[in-house]
Request: fold
Amino acid sequence: QVRLVESGGGLVQPGGSLRLSCTASGFIFGINFMGWYRQAPGKQRELVAGITSGGITNYADSVKGRFTISRDNAKKTVFLQMSSLKPEDTAVYYCNYATAWGQGTQVTVSS
Reply:
């Protein structure tokens, strides 16, 4: 059974940083595309960043240059380093593999 567990969310001031982690189990982690999504209140869930098994990354335009996705296949973990955070980054952040989703972790950017 696929299981994704996110951690690392919290409250941060504008301009601050957070690092999200997603630990996976139940599938062969190293050969799969992994993604981070977010959903703000009243908005649709959107892709924030993705990473292939080979380490190729893609980002939403709104986070390019501020967020970095990475993965540690040995630890079956994907990370999202978020810097220069803005209030509009406030959302629940979800880890994704295929049709599986984590429970989400809340990120709130506010002074």
Summary: The longest strand covers residues 18-25. The two ends are 40 Å apart (CA to CA).
